[in-house]
Amino acid sequence: MPSAERKLQINEPKASRFDFDLHADSYDGWYAGRRGAMYDRLEKKAISRYLPPSTKGTKLLEVGCGTGHWSQFFSEYGFEVTGVDVSEQMIDIAKSKNISNASFQVADGHSLPFADNTFNVTAAITTLEFVHDAKTVVREMVRCTYKREGLLIIGVLNALARLNRKRQQDSGSPYAKARLFSPSQLKQFLEPFGQSAIVTVGFVPNLKLFLPLAPLIDRLGRILHIPYGVFITAKVKL
Length: 238
Fold this sequence. Notes:
Blueprint: H1 34-48, E1 59-63, H2 69-77, E2 80-85, H3 88-96, E3 102-106, E4 121-125, H4 134-143, E5 151-157, H5 162-167, H6 183-190, E6 195-201, H7 214-223, E7 231-237
Parallel strand pairs: 1-2, 1-4, 2-3, 4-5
Antiparallel strand pairs: 5-7, 6-7
């Protein structure tokens, strides 16, 4: 379908379960603290294992890019990044960062304004939990990605993790409106779209004293396939 027919109707209620404009200014603050920075480090290390070794000239679409936090990571990795989000304020912040080889626009993942087979890689990091129809969003991601050697990169918050269950108890937070996945649920959800691999990470101790041990604990969690890490990473080969 031509992109002109796929333009976002920004008032459509299906776009997101939560109005992230409300948290745009404070969103990046999570990564400034020691604990948030550690989760970020472990999550990015896990995602980097899925990425191709050579990315020169490789086009990556990030659906639900928010303030461009992950866009920065993908850009530094070498991708030519296109980031989309339904939150205009989030997109404004992403643009203000002047990230190299990255462009941003307001768009709804349920109806992406791009032609078929436009991108080599399409990513959605902590996005599918907050959309109204995750299956439609992934179908759109697949449509926009090359079917030969194309790759989807997914990161979601784990429904089995104690931290995420606690987050959902806060009725005023985005997490309260999120529909989280367990590792098995994500695996089953992604199976129709291609060959998938799932890894659970984000094993960070609660006590600050033991925070430096998080990379070791995280490694053990991955090796032993413990399903309770905060973050689930997935790749899908199309």
